[in-house]
Amino acid sequence: MRPPNILLLVVIIFAQATAFGDGGTVLWRKEAGSLVITAFASPVPLSSGPVDISLLLQNRSGLEPVLDANVWLLLRADASGEEVRAHPTREQAQNKLLYAAPLTLPESGKWELEVTILRNGEQTDATGTIGVAPGPEKGTSYWSYIAFPQLMIAIYVVRERLIRRKPRK
Fold this sequence. Notes:
Layout: H1 3-18, E1 25-32, E2 35-42, E3 49-59, E4 70-77, E5 83-86, E6 98-105, E7 109-119, E8 122-132, H2 143-164
Antiparallel strand pairs: 1-2, 2-3, 3-6, 4-5, 4-7, 7-8
């Protein structure tokens, strides 16, 4: 395999590790009242610290998105009982079909996620349990930024040595 092909292979392998389709993962999906509620979260895996919780609300009958609801979130830690409240809105979401809220989870463990939706005078509630991993250590969360320049320098040095190598007779 020629050096440019190897470099392309290395870039593809590293790029796929950081490519996320929507920036989150599905926490749970519930049918409640006339709605289907799907909760997403990022980072992946969900860990303590700053997180983004997004909700997709759909009509139960045709699965059309619901865009005119008021939504509230309550997260309660099972271990300590600590509560985090949020009011997700479509304005805070990048995808305008979702209701999103940035929040900070102070600890890891099991959390109960309660969603309250008010739409057309009707209140819909849904609950579920989510797992939150411990947050990454500060230094280890930046390892890829620190390693990338050294990796590029090493690839360049190998490339230059291969180019300057004299053919054997």
